[in-house]
Amino acid sequence: METSSTFRVQLVQHGPSGLQVLRKKVLLRIDADGVAIAGQRLPAPDHLVQKRRLLRLYLPDAHETTVRFADSVGVDACIDQLRIRFPDCRLLPAAAAMPAATDNEADPPSLDEMASMFMYDPGFRRLVQDLHVQIAANEVAGGTVHEIS
Q1: Rounded alpha-carbon distances, angstroms, from residue 39 to 27, 91, 112
Q2: What domain of life (predicted)?
């Protein structure tokens, strides 16, 4: 039997009062080798999803996606498959543009996890500026700003 992991995607968009979490939720499934991805739009109760990490994707249609990865699938494999599905996406650190009131507060990533996510996309600062969103770099990265080359 082929094992797979399911993780939840939470879409965020800019609204009249800033970033707003869309009520639509999407479940994506990746197999154990990280080689297949499929999406289905349906409610995604938290108890169905193992929460481990948060990543944020900036999509060119001005939506962002917060992905909670299941423990059993490597983050790199998930990222590879998300890049196939969304070839123009950019990865942002989890803390970037995080809406003020979401269920993420119940299971926040550690400071180390958030800081490590800074290195995924060299262009994330420019993208965040384009979105007119500030990153609290000192708070996320323990008082240092990571230089990206």
Answers
A1: 6, 19, 30
A2: Eukaryota
